[in-house]
C-alpha cells in the first residue's frame, strides 16, 4: 500500500509562477523526502525534512511538514521550463531499515 | 560519475524466460533497494538489503529473488518472467544515517 499521496496529480503553470504540491501520509515517520523524476530517467533526491522540523529550504525549494496533519508541501518558486518533471514524496518510518514508501507523484508542467 | 549503475537499460523477455538485473554502487552505501514503477503509480519496493550477505522482502516480492554477495552489488532475478512483471525497475542505495537515496537510471523490462 502506498503511504504518501500527492495532490494534485497534475499541475500546469507558466514560467515564473510558483508551484505547490502537497503530500499526505498515514502513519508516523522519521522523515519525509521529495524526489524529482524527469521523463525516462531515475529519481533525484531534492530535500529531506525530519519529523521534528517544520520547514526547510534549498535554493528555490521550500518544504513544510505538519506532523499533526500528516502532511507536507513542496513549493517551487519562480518556476522554469526545466522544472517540468514528476515530483514524488516518500516517507521513512521507524525501524524500517530506511525503506521509503512513495506516493503516486505530481506531474508538473512549466510552460515557457 | 559516482553513483548507481544499472544494466541492462532495456530488455524484452518471453513469458517463462529468466534474467538477472544488475545494480552496482560506488558510494560504499550499506543499504540497497529494488523498486518497480508502473504507469500512474509511485515506486513499490520489491526487495532490499541492509548489508553484504543480507536481503529482505519488500511490498511486492513475489516472482523475484535477490542476492547481495558483495557490498557494492545487488542483483534482482526473475526466474520465470510473467507479463505482470512488465515494468521499469529502479535500484537505489542509501547510507545508514540520514540522507536521500541515490537511484540508478532504470531498466525497462517488457515481458511478452
Key features of this structure:
heterodimer, A: 112 residues, mainly beta, 6-stranded mixed β-sheet, 5-stranded antiparallel β-sheet, 55% strand, B: 112 residues, 7-stranded mixed β-sheet, 4-stranded antiparallel β-sheet
Please, what is the average pLDDT of chain B?
A: 95
Portion of residues in beta strands of chain B equals: over 45%
Structural class of chain B: mainly beta
Record field, number of beta strands of chain A: 11
C-alpha end-to-end distance of chain A: 37 Å
Low-confidence stretches of chain B: none
The helix fraction of chain A, in percent, is under 10%
Order of helices and strands of chain A: EEEEEEEEEEE
Describe what is shown at a glance.
The complex is a heterodimer of chains A (112) and B (112). By secondary structure, chain A is an all-beta fold.
Molecular structure report:
The complex is a heterodimer of chains A (112) and B (112). In chain A, strands 2, 4, 5, 9, 10 and 11 form a six-stranded mixed beta sheet that branches. In chain A, strands 1-3-8-7-6 form a five-stranded antiparallel beta sheet, with no helix packed on it. Chain A is mainly β and 112 residues long. The radius of gyration of chain A is 13 Å and the shape is globular. Chain A has no helices and eleven strands. With 112 residues, chain B is mainly β. In chain B, strands 2, 4, 5, 6, 9, 10 and 11 form a seven-stranded mixed beta sheet that branches. Chain B is built from no helices and eleven strands.
Describe the secondary-structure layout.
The complex is a heterodimer of chains A (112) and B (112).
Chain A: E1 5-7, E2 10-14, E3 19-24, E4 31-37, E5 43-50, E6 55-58, E7 61-66, E8 71-76, E9 85-92, E10 100-102, E11 106-111
Parallel strand pairs in A: 2-11
Antiparallel strand pairs in A: 1-3, 3-8, 4-5, 4-9, 6-7, 7-8, 9-10, 9-11
Chain B: E1 4-7, E2 10-13, E3 19-25, E4 31-37, E5 43-51, E6 54-57, E7 64-67, E8 75-78, E9 87-94, E10 102-103, E11 107-111
Parallel strand pairs in B: 2-11
Antiparallel strand pairs in B: 1-3, 3-8, 4-5, 4-9, 5-6, 7-8, 9-10, 9-11
